[in-house]
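Re-run with default settings, no changes from the original entry. Doing this only to confirm the output is reproducible before filing.
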Amino acid sequence: MAWRTVRGIIRDSAFPGNASVIHGITTRPLGDQKSAPNRRCPSGVRAFVLAEQVHGARIAWIGERFPRQFIPRTDGLFTREPGLALGIFTADCVPVLFSWPEESIVGVVHAGWRGLSAGIIGKACRALLRWAGKKTLRGLRVAIGPHIRSCCYEVSEDVARVFSKPGIAFRDGSRWYVHLAGEVKRQLSEGGLDPRDFSEAPFCTKEDRRFFSYRRDQDSRRILTYIFQK
């Protein structure tokens, strides 16, 4: 299995294929990451920038001079700046990590059902092409972190019907479910990525108690997903 846990941090050992890029996803033993005292700054990080996360589809580019630690009205962050860590909080939504070694770009996106229905992953792909001045995303690598899987993500029929593509929303008897990671991968594929370019963590946050889960716990505790380059 490519995903391994060391000292409470989960990483995909196959991502990003570049020793200068560091990423991690915290687990429950490290505490609620929305509480600043629990947030440990990784070695080599000079600053931490976090998305406000409003369940939208806005993507922000973070340059050398960024205005504040929390970027308002934003659910995705990207940068070329070394030592600048980008982070998001989740407790069932999908954390999506991006690394484009050839362009020295890293990023992270918070993808819940609202953001996915607004096309946040597709927007991230198009923004990357624009920022890099490229026509293809050749060399881009993506890791889909722990999230609530379709087995546990029951939704209303109204939410299910937002996702019209085959295999994303499905019905089991009278209950409706949504495959969030399936929609992430669909948008990545539409953006030009090959399935070999992305990986998915095999954990369900609702079932696996190493993670916080809003559906299970009904509280505000969150894990942190971060990425930076040396």
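The chain is about 15% helix and 30% strand. The chain has one domain: 3-149+188-229.
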